[in-house]
Write a structure and sequence with these properties.
- With 459 residues, the chain is mainly β.
- It has one domain: TolB, C-terminal domain (Neuraminidase, 6 Propeller).
- The protein contains five helices and 28 strands.
- The protein has a five-stranded antiparallel β-sheet. Strands 21, 22, 23, 24 and 25 form a five-stranded antiparallel β-sheet that branches. Strands 2-28-27-26 form a four-stranded antiparallel β-sheet, with no helix packed on it.
- The N terminus is likely disordered.
Length: 459
Amino acid sequence: MLASLFKPVRCFISPCPRQTSGRIAATLLFLSLLWGCQSNEALDHTEASVAAISYGENPALVGPETSLIPTINIAKAVGWQDDEMPTSPITDLEVNKFAAGLDHPRWLYRLPNGDILVAQSNKPEKNNEDGGLVAWLQRKVMAAAGAGVTSADRITLLRDTDNDGVADLQKVFLQNLHSPFGMTLVNNTLYVANTDAIVAYTYEPGQTQITTAGRKVTSLPAGEINHHWTKNLLASHDGRTLYVAVGSNSNIAENGFAAENQRAAILAVDIASGVKRIFASGLRNPVGMAWVDNTLWTVVNERDELGDNLVPDYMTSVQENAFYGWPYSYFGQNVDTRVEQNNPQLVEQAIKPDYALGAHTASLGLLYNGTAQSLGPLATGMYVGQHGSWNRKPRSGYKVVFVPFTDGRPAGLPQDVLRGFVNDKGQARGRPVGVIFSQTGDLLVADDVGNVIWRVSEK
């Protein structure tokens, strides 16, 4: 995500083609302003604000806005103080800590017996990307946003043995992994998506730790440049296929198309053979995935540097062999003029996503509820964990929302479920990521800045 943000810096250090003196000046200004761009505005949750950041099936897309200095509006990570916690605006719901003291918890998975697995993970430490000043600046920005910690590279098991809504057992389940993220159980095999490979482990029901060696199923796109390092997993209903969400290696393919091989896509992996293929492409950074009946859905982070209100992140049903625009176009066939249009026939085929989730909200978590079970007044629909913007004024995201569904389709504007992650000073006390239901129907939310798993339940 941060790659293109620092392209002006790269051009200043090692001049790019067609560079102008204005770009050099802008680079110097960019460096001088980088740490003076904190904003203290509080998040606005009014309907006007929701409309302004483009939600819904037919968002009103504004025109692109480009500038030499991209917007940087980092909510500095400060964590939760004392008894602070996020809140729900829904009066029937309450919030408590399900688990605390974790190390950058990103993704959640529930085992059949109700145990919760938490991937404690971050970007791979040994990642040979741009060195020198560029790498230093990237680390500073990431650290300010709470994403600069070393990856714990482990999965922890949480168990609520007395059913009081708090995990009283917290144990290392798997360790010595490589930036793990997605997890899924098929029969007696647990599949874990490291940043560079899917690994399979034999699982015995109820066990609290796996110490046996894993078996590599297939490699995943990684390499020396490994932007959008997360790899999520979802198994097919028949247990024969693993769907893998793989993000792009850049903002708009500025690292070259060779670096995007099998990226910006959802891959389908045959479990038996490990053979993989592209299931759908043109998805800049798909993360969460969910089944809505027999249809695969995903949530996607779109491109940057086209203005505060463009391009909206989105969730969409995923059609096999379909193309969703990246990098040539966005939200259907809206051409991105920054990208060389060397494949115009793809733009003609680009599918418009089903539902916009707001510009730069960094929507990551995705959880569908299609059962008769409800959480307070929230019944059939999709929960979305929005990690929050770093490049928009005013900020967007930093909350969990619920989008109602009817007949397998979005049916209305989202409703805030959990918010308060940014304080009145514009600092991030937390940032929501993965969302999942507990066995008792409570909503669990991974907070990778607060290092907490929050539980949202009925009063």
